[in-house]
C-alpha cells in the first residue's frame, strides 16, 4: 500500500488539473496515487443518464439543480470523481472552477459502463460513502438493476434497496419520489 503525503496529494491534483484528456474522456482519482482515465460513454449509457435527469428534476429540493459535467473533488480523502449526474445547490454549481466540494452534494448517480463496472459498483460506492454524500444511486444496465444507497456512516452506506429494471425504486427525501426504472436501457 502506498502512503500519500500532503505534498504528493497536491502533486496528484495538480497533475489531474494539467492532464489534456481527449474530448469526452473523464479523468478521476479513484484509487490512491492513481489517475483513472475513462473513455466516452456509449449512447445507451447517456440515454440512461438523460432519463434519470428527466425524472429527478421535477422532484429537486428548492434551490438545487442537477449537474453532469463538473467534478466532485474530495481533498480530505484524496479522491476526485466526475459522476454521471449529481445534485447540489445552484449557487454551489455556479462556480468559476470545474469542481465542487462534496459537502453540498446530496445525491451522486452513476450508470455502470461495460469498460469499468468495478469503478461504479465498488470504488465509487466507497468514495461517496467516505465523502458522506447522503445518497448514491447506481443504475446498472449490465445487471438490469437499480440500487439506492443511503445513510453513510463511518465510510460506508448502512442502507440500500435494489430493484430490477421495470420495478420502481423509492428515492428518499429530500426528493421523495418513485424512480421508474422501466425506461432504463440494458447493454
Provide the CATH topology.
tt1808, chain A
Give the end-to-end Cα distance, rounded to a whole number of Å. Answer: 35 Å
Measured by DSSP, the beta-strand proportion falls in 25-35%
Shape: globular
Report the average pLDDT across residues.
93
Structural class determined from secondary elements: alpha+beta
Domain Putative restriction endonuclease: 16-181
Keywords: Endonuclease, Hydrolase, Nuclease
GO molecular function: endonuclease activity
Organism: Nocardiopsis endophytica
Q: What do you see in this structure?
A:
One of its GO terms (molecular function) is endonuclease activity. It comes from Nocardiopsis endophytica. InterPro entries: Nuclease_put_TT1808, Restrct_endonuc-II-like, Uma2. By secondary structure, the chain is of the alpha+beta class. It has a single domain, classed as tt1808, chain A, CATH 3.90.1570. It contains 4 helices and 13 strands. It has helices spanning 6-18, 43-56, 90-93, 117-130; strands at 26-31, 34-38, 64-67, 71-74, 79-81, 85-89, 99-100, 107-111, 135-140, 145-153, 156-164, 169-171, 177-179. It has a 6-stranded mixed beta sheet, sandwiched between helices. Strands 5-4-7 form a 3-stranded mixed beta sheet, with no helix packed on it. Strands 1-2 form a two-stranded antiparallel sheet. Strand 1 (26-31) and strand 2 (34-38) form a beta hairpin. The termini are far apart. Mean pLDDT is 93; it is low at 1-6.
